Amino acid sequence: DSDLSMRTLSTPSPALIFPPNSPGFQNGRESSTSSSSVTGETVAMVHSPPPTRLTHPLIRLASKHQKEQANIDRLPDHSMVQIFSFLPTNQLCRCARVCRRWYNLAWDPRLWRTIRLTGETINVDRALKVLTRRLCQDTPNVCLMLETVIVSGCRRLTDRGLYTIAQCCPELRRLEVSGCYNISNEAVFDVVSLCPNLEHLDVSGCSKVTCISLTREASIKLSPLHGKQISIRYLDMTDCFVLEDEGLHTIAAHCTQLTHLYLRRCVRITDEGLRYLMIYCTSIKELSVSDCRFVSDFGMREIAKLESRLRYLSIAHCGRITDVGIRYIAKYCSKLRYLNARGCEGITDHGVEYLAKNCTKLKSLDIGKCPLVSDTGLEFLALNCFNLKRLSLKSCESITGQGLQIVAANCFDLQMLNVQDCDVSVDALRFVKRHCKRCIIEHTNPAFF
């Protein structure tokens, strides 16, 4: 059809990402349809397009019944492309081997805005090289249609794979390499330097990544605007254990457009790192410093500088945060919608009171494992935060059924309530269920069901 970009059939295509026991291998040997044989690992195979028909003179002509078209072949091209759009990368490659028509449809540019590879055994570096080479066929050395690459959990991804992406995909907007612990700073620097439109970067679990910055060559070339060239808005560095305050300073100085930043379990981050962050990144809406044990009330004072822009904050298990830090947040961040303060044992009913009276639009609150929060704090929540939808009180020793009843009588939109390991009666749980009919209650009371 005229609306489709038909591919040149003489060019080989990466058709499958084969495991060793797939149909492409027979008795430990690769079948005749593939161009190379690699045993013991998963690789991207290269295939030529399927032939239109079998022309050997000894092959008998198909019967009339066999010539009848399959139901799926009756679908128009645009419907087939729509169906293919729901397939992951490896399945889309398989479809390209079915017949000549499917080959052409499977390589429609609209289907290759995203590459998604998963699995610990995949030779990701080779797969990315073969795929990008095929996608660069019409525009030599440049893959203009590819915008998203997701290779999460692929432990065999190395810097070589990221170099391939950086060099071939200038229009890349989203990159997720979570759990790929073999990549280093240098490869990440290349990606952010050569992909100026990159907005979403997930390097969670990449323990070798300690900061995000431009390469030295890019820094020299763009020195007058240095620090404003990285357009990343979403950055997830969860479990990047080696990240320190200096690295966070570099990130903040070069990624000034950040709106979402997740630093869960970055255990070396301190209040000083948060101070650097607030100097440069004033547009942050969502921030997580969960399990950053060195973050204290002084860090909360820095975060409060975000004022009404902050909507999401997670400070779970930050044991140095007390009512003082909560008061800073409550006073200046009035549009806060989500707060996770689980395990902050220094928070009391006074902190909950500050929060409830100033952040009245709060929708989700987790104050589990805060033993100093009691029914008094719940009463402040119930009388001020009518929009509350999710409330976690797990392991709050001072909570009773009376506090729950006050919440249920005022927060009709409550959808989730966690009271596991709390001393609450069955009658109180039934009261909650009657007043909040859509509420899912997580509990440990065997008498309530």
From TrEMBL:
Q: Does the keyword Repeat apply?
A: yes
Keywords noted in UniProt: Cell cycle, Cell division, Cytoplasm, Cytoskeleton, Leucine-rich repeat, Mitosis, Repeat, Ubl conjugation pathway
> Which GO biological-process labels does this protein carry?
cell division; protein polyubiquitination; SCF-dependent proteasomal ubiquitin-dependent protein catabolic process
The family database entries (InterPro entries) matched by this protein are listed as:
F-box-like_dom_sf (IPR036047), F-box_dom (IPR001810), FBXL15_LRR (IPR057207), Leu-rich_rpt_Cys-con_subtyp (IPR006553), LRR_dom_sf (IPR032675)
Where is the sequence biased in composition, kind Polar residues? 1-13
Q: Where is this region: Disordered?
A: 1-38
Could you tell me the superkingdom of the organism this chain comes from?
Answer: Eukaryota
Record PROSITE patterns: FBOX
Subcellular compartments: Cytoplasm, Cytoskeleton, Microtubule organizing center, Centrosome
A single GO cellular-component term on record: SCF ubiquitin ligase complex
Keyword Glycosyltransferase assigned to the entry: answer is: no
Q: In which pathway does it act?
A: Protein modification; protein ubiquitination
Q: What are the residue boundaries of the F-box domain, all occurrences included?
A: 69-115
Oligomeric and partner information? Part of the SCF (SKP1-CUL1-F-box) E3 ubiquitin-protein ligase complex SCF(FBXL7) composed of CUL1, SKP1, RBX1 and FBXL7. Interacts with AURKA; interaction takes place during mitosis but not in interphase. Interacts with BIRC5; this interaction allows BIRC5 to be polyubiquitinated by the SCF(FBXL7) E3 ubiquitin-protein ligase complex.
Please state which protein family the record places this protein in: Belongs to the FBXL7 family.
Q: Describe the task this protein carries out.
A: Substrate recognition component of a SCF (SKP1-CUL1-F-box protein) E3 ubiquitin-protein ligase complex. During mitosis, it mediates the ubiquitination and subsequent proteasomal degradation of AURKA, causing mitotic arrest. It also regulates mitochondrial function by mediating the ubiquitination and proteasomal degradation of the apoptosis inhibitor BIRC5.
Q: What is this protein called?
A: F-box/LRR-repeat protein 7
